[in-house]
Write a structure and sequence with these properties.
Blueprint: H1 7-32, H2 36-45, H3 50-55, H4 65-76, H5 82-87, H6 95-99, E1 113-120, E2 122-124, E3 129-131, E4 135-139, H7 140-152, E5 156-165, H8 170-184, E6 189-198, H9 200-205, E7 210-213, E8 218-220, H10 232-238, H11 262-287, H12 291-297, E9 302-304, H13 305-311, E10 316-317, H14 320-330, E11 338-343, H15 350-360, E12 365-366, E13 377-380, H16 391-405, H17 411-422
Parallel strand pairs: 1-5, 1-11, 2-4, 5-6, 6-7, 6-8, 7-10
Antiparallel strand pairs: 3-4, 8-9, 11-13, 12-13
Helix pairs in contact: 1-2, 7-8, 11-12, 16-17
Length: 423
């Protein structure tokens, strides 16, 4: 059994680490107006006294948060004296100003619509979910449902697939890939890679017309990982005995109380090879390469976004904004266009589902009408992506709910929601 890292793995990790390090050095030097050698010196010195960072011009000042708040009060609060300014709460943007935000600012104007579909988390069969090992999962059924909504919608003119996934179940990725290919036949589809779009994550991206990655996105990993867990030694130690009763040559292929037989191991390896060849063949077709050319870039190797651009695995370097711009260009959208996020339905449908999305959705603002209840949701894309509900989101969520009250007698529920939004 191997007890050390393989040379191939060491090469990949060193390559990624070196690029991340060099990018960090470059960015810090640019922002602080220093040479890259200066940055390397301070990193290697690793001073423990904060005064050394201030004296070297790496930080502006060293103060506590309370002192910073007082400085802001002195500059922005109203009052004749310093003491009067400090007594008042810090002046901030009021609620009324948020209510006057223009629709254009929030990408609510325009007849044409660009849909953003997220593929985040480990790729699995079935519905979206979560587990303790991998966190949130991207279910093939949920993803296919959302993609079909984009295919059927006359308002959606182009789609951006935001991929942030390390991969997962190969069958699930293939099902999702096939649906994206069907979408790409009818509308422009752009892949936008976030932190990770590797293995199954890249599988999805290669179904799109154009692939956009961040400079340090971890992508590629075109390969297949499969294994069988044998607990025979553990069972022997604890005295646990299990007997298998089966019919068929390969019926016991995945039993966990013994390792493979030679015949089973050969069959298992053959299946992995078939899956790998299918992956590489589809990737080669997507990128306009021969199988042999793609195979040199595959073999499970992980690439950064910049490296992937150089070897032809991605088309552009940039973020979600660039992907949306390319989608608008390919769809020939002349007006501002609306940017919406398409999501599959949650476990709660109907009115309860809407209430849940308005009060507990941290990633976007619901922008749906009564006809969309119980269907895949249209969610407004904002630049805000924090964990707490921001004022703009509260304002717009309130607007959506208030518009519903015009049609339904739900005054008590509205009062409850208003209390929730204000808290």
């Amino acid at each position: 059994a191997r007890t050390s890292m393989s040379e191939a793995q060491r090469e990949v990790l060193n390559s990624i680490m070196e690029q991340q390090y060099n990018r960090f050095i470059h960015d810090v030097a640019k922002v602080k107006k220093k040479s890259e050698d200066d940055v390397k010196v301070i990193l290697d010195a690793a001073p423990q006294l904060m005064e050394e960072y201030r004296e070297g011009g790496w930080v502006t000042d060293i103060i506590y948060e309370s002192t910073l708040v007082d400085k802001l009060k002195e500059e922005f609060n109203k009052g004749r004296t310093k003491e009067a300014k400090l007594k008042r709460p810090l002046r901030s943007v009021g609620w009324r100003k948020y209510t006057r935000v223009r629709a254009k600012t929030l990408a609510l104007q325009g007849k044409s619509c660009i849909a953003v579909i997220r593929a985040g988390g480990a790729i699995t069969l079935g519905k979206n979910g979560s587990n303790a090992a991998t966190g949130g999962t991207c279910g093939s059924d949920s993803f296919v449902e959302t993609v079909r909504t984009a295919i059927d919608s006359d308002y959606v003119k182009a789609v951006v697939i935001r991929v942030d996934s390390p991969g997962g179940v190969s069958l699930a990725a293939d099902v999702m890939w096939n649906e994206l290919k069907a979408l790409a036949k009818k509308k422009p589809v752009i892949a936008s890679m976030a932190d990770v779009a590797a293995s199954g994550g890249y599988y999805l991206a290669m179904a799109c017309d154009t692939i956009v990655a961040e400079e340090l996105t971890l992508t590629g990993s075109i390969g297949v990982v499969t294994a069988k867990l044998s607990l025979k030694d553990l069972f022997d130690r604890i005295g646990f005995v299990r007997e298998n009763i089966s019919i068929g040559k390969y019926a016991e292929l995945e039993v966990d109380n013994r390792p493979f037989t030679e015949v089973e191991e050969a069959y298992f390896a053959q299946g992995a090879q078939y899956a790998y060849k299918s992956f590489v063949s589809k990737a080669a077709e997507s990128r306009g390469m021969t199988y042999e050319e793609m195979n040199k870039l595959a073999q499970g190797r992980v690439w950064t976004g910049l490296q992937a651009k150089e070897c032809g695995l991605v088309d552009e370097i940039g973020g979600l904004n660039l992907a949306i711009s390319l989608a608008k260009e390919k769809a020939n959208i002349k007006d501002a266009g609306r940017i919406v996020e398409l999501r599959s339905r949650r476990g709660f449908g109907g009115l309860l589902g809407l209430f849940r999305s308005l009060t507990a959705n941290p990633a976007g603002v619901a922008a749906m009408n009564l006809g969309e209840l119980g269907k895949p949701e249209l969610l407004l894309m904002t630049d805000y992506d924090g964990s707490d509900v921001n004022p703009v989101e509260r304002h717009l969520a309130g607007r959506v709910f208030n518009s519903m009250v015009k049609y339904l007698d739900m005054q008590p529920l509205r009062q409850l929601l208003n209390l929730t939004l204000r808290s």
